[in-house]
Amino acid sequence: MSHPQPHTAAAADPLDAGDPQAPFLELLARGASADAYEQPVLLARADGAPAARIAALEAAKRLALGVREEMEGRRRREAELSALFETAHDLAGLRDLDAVLQAIVQRARSLLRTDVAYLTLNDPVRGDTRMRVTEGSVAARFQQLRLGMGEGLGGLVAQTARPYVTDNYAQDVRFQHTSTIDAGVRDEGLQAILGVPLMLGSQVIGVLFASDRRTRVFAREEIALLGSFAALAAAAIDAANLLTETREALAGLERANEIIRDRSAVIERASDVHDRLAELVLRGGGVHDVAAAVSQVLDGTVEFTDAGAAPAEALEASRAEGHAVRRDRDWVAAVAAGGELLGALVLRGHPGLDPVDQRTLERAAMVTSLLLLARRSASEAEQRVRGELLDDLLDARDRDPRLLRERASRLDADLDATHVVLAARLEAVADDAEEEAAARRRLGAAAGHLAATRHGLAAARDGGTVLLLPLAADDTASQLASQVAKRLSAAIHETVTVGASAPVDRLATRTETAAVACAEARRCLDALRVLGRAGEGAAADDFGFLGLLLADSRDIPGFVTRTIGEVVTYDARRGTDLVRTLDAYFAAGSSPARTKDALHVHVNTVAQRLERIGHLLGPDWQSPERSLEIQLALRLHRLAGPDIR
């Protein structure tokens, strides 16, 4: 009988002995678990490999695990977006409400990786709430629960219309416990529960839950994802109600031929818009495509507007009632999701609108909200990827330049180009912690959008935001900082101050460059705030001699050249003595009479030289601020010698 030979790194693959990354690339290629990445190192140690070989394998392992983590994160985000689009597809072709709700609960459980997911709906006839759909449940009593209004965690969600989460249901005293609910939860063995409301307009019609049989803290992204599924579930219920209403209307039309003839064109238009909207969702159309399709069906002009541009009173009424609202000769339908107002569809100049056409406008608003949520999810995913790359540039010390360039290339960024690191921070501090957090999120979103449009990167750090933007050939770091401060302040309607580093390049290969530039940008930001220049943007060059302290590199020749370079150059070209005259003038307390004694020249000669100096340095050269900078430059010029130009 033959015995299996012991497996070693050399026996596994001759290439492994030469390339420490080869075994890990193979593990990445076949999607191995994280534990498997320890085996090449363990085998090398078992074979007595040199310490350098083992160290190389350890470094390759860390790099491969980082790549694996990023790939897993991307797969997870792609799965979330795919599930949202699949659910929207199910809703667009809605035939069976139970099947759609079951699919939503299944996908929510799968993506959040919880033991159980379930959905409850309010019963207005009996005045209680009943379990409608469960996934992963094993207890019969739990699956058949009927809850009184306001009872349990679901009752708290329904009362406040806000998500709630508990990591230990039995010990949580924020909501009303009952023996019936507690017994059902106990049978199911649940501990951690997250609940989000199902909203139709301002009305809570039920609650979507995700729960675990162990203690768990749900992340903010998981709460938002479950909220998106809840919005889809509410939309499915609303669509089912709409189909029920349509069927009832058709039954009534069948009983009266005259009504059938009068309403047939309207029903045909409703069916047409349903098909068009379904097609738009399937092929990834935008909100303006939805408006154009509804315009054709309703024989009018439909426009999508931001929430701030729509009539405020009509918009709020539409959101509260969940229906389109007439305003003068227009109709306004709120575009909302999960209680958040995203905009409005406005039908212009069409005061006479029958109920079916009104419902068509409302359905278009609902589809528009789904498209906006999907687009937002994709945008947030891209911003996270950009932020992760910038974090790696600022923090990581052991990284592969080739992988960094590839990641940047996928984001349409070029790490070999000249960039500027900018530190941005809000000036106003909100009294409420939630308001301040919301303002920071708005700043992060605006910075992410700016970075995406400028082929750069952005990430939230230390209570503010850091950006990495390419520098145009005809631009300076100071100009870029000023532009970014104005853009961000205008975008979020708050005062934003921005500090900039000096231009940097070769970010992929120079390990410390980004971190050092970020520190310089923060020093400039702090200097602006100390000097009372909130809302401005500046780099070290904007601070005169203070820039020598703020900049990472002490550019003394550059400071001297910027301050008195014209005078030095004039002396060098013409053989004059303006620098010495300027030095003597300040040493004499700015007195021409004492200056002429020190130089042993006539006072008129001093006056002529000072006039020439004024032409070279500008009319404000004797102002206190300029005078201080000029005297410092003169002293640095003397100390450094005559070679500074």
Task: Please specify the SSE layout and strand pairing.
Elements: H1 9-12, H2 22-29, H3 39-46, H4 51-92, H5 97-112, E1 116-123, E2 128-135, H6 140-143, E3 146-148, H7 152-160, E4 164-166, H8 179-188, E5 192-200, E6 203-212, H9 220-254, H10 257-282, H11 287-298, E7 301-305, H12 312-321, E8 325-327, E9 330-337, E10 340-348, H13 355-395, H14 401-410, E11 419-426, H15 433-453, E12 457-461, E13 464-470, H16 477-492, E14 496-500, H17 513-530, E15 537-538, H18 546-550, H19 556-574, H20 578-587, H21 592-599, H22 603-617, H23 624-640
Parallel strand pairs: 14-15
Antiparallel strand pairs: 1-2, 1-6, 2-3, 4-5, 5-6, 7-10, 8-9, 9-10, 11-13, 11-14, 12-13
Helix pairs in contact: 3-4, 4-5, 4-9, 4-10, 4-13, 5-9, 9-10, 9-13, 10-11, 10-13, 11-13, 13-15, 15-16, 19-23, 20-21, 21-22
Structure in a nutshell:
This protein is of the alpha+beta class and 645 residues long. 56% of the residues lie in helices and 14% in strands. Belongs to the CdaR family.
